[in-house]
Amino acid sequence: MDRLFITHIGALALPDPARTGVLNLPVDVIHDTWLEIEDGRVKQIGAAGEPKPPDSTAAALRYHAGGRLATPGFVDAHTHPVFISWRSGEFLRRIRGETYQQIAAAGGGILSSVRGVRSATVEQLAELVRKRLDRFLELGTTTIEAKSGYGLTVEDELKSLRALHTAAAAHPVEVSPTLLGAHTIPPEHRHNPDEYTTLVCDRMIPAAAAARLADAVDVFLEEGAFTLPQARRVFEAGRKAGLSLRIHADQFTSGGGAALAAEFGALSADHMDHTDEAGLKLLAQAGVTVVLLPGAVFFLGLNDYAPARRMLDNNCRIALATDFNPGSCPTQSLPLMMTLACIKMKLTPAEALWAATMGGAYALGANDRIGTLKPGYQADICLWVADDADFIPYSFGNASPEAVFKRGKLVYRRSSAPTADLIQ
Predict the structure, then answer these.
(1) Residue 282: exposed, middle, or buried by beta-carbon count in 10 A (0-12, 13-18, 19+)?
(2) pLDDT for 105
(3) Strands 141-147, 74-79: parallel, antiparallel or unpaired by DSSP?
(4) Do 143 and 160 reside in the same domain of the chain?
(5) Are 317 and 359 in contact (CB under 8 A)?
């Protein structure tokens, strides 16, 4: 039996797993406390003002937190980590006035990443994903949803999913893989997009499900990507294959994605920057988690951030994610997303923390085991040099944890952190 005590926690932030609608103040805080961890899960929390457990536990392994803030590890519910090359050239083109859609129409954007993935091996992709998982961990993320989507053939999409499995097998960051074969129409099918949709539905989705390479299927419903009827076909095929459903929708235009996600009971509806009031009500009624992606809005130089406050007013459950990808949002920092959510979407720091932890867990269908540190939950923990959780979004661009635990194991320690904290 593995047993660990994390003692002398200055403040312990506990997102409330039951507060899924209008969040208000969804994070409980216990000051001067300790955690008992057994077999990778939180067993017990000390009382406020009790920085260390009773002396009878002296024989257990301990980690002295030194008065640091403890939060759950972040859950990033929307990432695209399987790619070869960065697309920094597009950054300059956007600065000079080209839009995301114009760059994509000229053969850039997603299609430029497709060329790299198609020419790569599983091993090459997996090695790059491992390095990106390292960076997620350094920034406090302990679980990610990870999409394919830069292959756009049956072979290359399955290759991307295998790369995710290979990388995750030897890494502490937990990965939930999603098949995003319906990311955009590849060049060889540009004159017959319905033919490509048929390929995704009849061959790609069944193959990924049969090989148990994906937990979910995703589709990009947007002008220049997939239409509403095509997205419906993808959802029908995903449901038939027994996969959970996700959707990219309403990023640039309102296209009916909210109603489709609600009808099918999707796990998540992502972006939703242009969703109307009726769509928000449908998402709330269906219990679909809305994944907010402010980093993409910011990096594309746009102004229409998802209406987070109206979402909460309509009782929507929200998550906060990075949308990490090589073109429209090349960041892995959920602390930075928390800053943007507070400044641009008017979330409180507590709401942003809830959305980056418990909200992400809901978006993955894992809200019964990750996203908070209440007894029974997985001991995925970040320790921060901070007095309270508000400091994380306040210290924008700088916030990163000193130490990270995954399932009760110390898996990352910043080089400047004290080295004598872990004792027998």
Answers:
(1) buried
(2) 74
(3) parallel
(4) yes
(5) yes
Task: Give the CATH number, domain containing residue 416.
Answer: 2.30.40.10
pLDDT at 59: 61
Mean pLDDT of 63-68: 95
Shared domain for 83 and 232, answered yes or no, is yes
pLDDT band of 419, cuts 50, 70, 90 = low
Among 297, 292, 368, 364, CA closest to 146: 364
Between these two residues, 26 and 212, which has the higher pLDDT value? 212
Tell me: do 382 and 293 sit in the same domain: no
Q: Which residues, including other chains, have CB under 8 Å from residue 69's CB and lie 6 or more apart? A: 9, 10, 11, 12, 13, 383, 384, 385, 386, 387, 388, 389, 391
Instruction: Express each pLDDT in 274-292 by its tens digit.
Output: 999 999 999 999 999 999 9
Enclosing domain of residue 36: 3-72+372-423
Q: What is the CATH number of the domain that holds 240?
A: 3.20.20.140
25 or 247: whose pLDDT is higher?
247
Last residue in a domain, options 363, 387, 402: 363
Helices and strands (H and E) in the chain: how many: 16, 17
For 120-165, the pLDDT digits (tens) are 999 999 999 999 999 999 999 999 999 999 999 999 999 999 999 9
- The reply to whether 10 and 34 lie within a common domain is yes
Contact 269, 261 (CB under 8 A): yes
Count other C-beta atoms under 10 Å from residue 202's C-beta: 12
Q: Collapse the DSSP code of 248 into the 3-class scheme (helix H, G, I; strand E, B; otherwise coil) and give the result.
A: strand
Are 303 and 413 contained in the same domain? no
Average pLDDT score over residue span 370-376 = 97
Tell me, what amino acid is at 174?
A: E
Say how many domains are in the chain.
Answer: 2
Alpha helices in 325-424 (DSSP H): 334-345, 349-354, 360-363, 391-394
**Positive or negative torsion for Cα 416, 342, 295, 353:** positive
Same structural domain, 121 and 34: no
Indicate the residue among 363, 393, 413 that finishes a domain.
Answer: 363
Q: What's the rounded Cα separation, in Å, for the pair 83 and 70?
A: 33
Question: Bridge partners of 273?
Answer: none
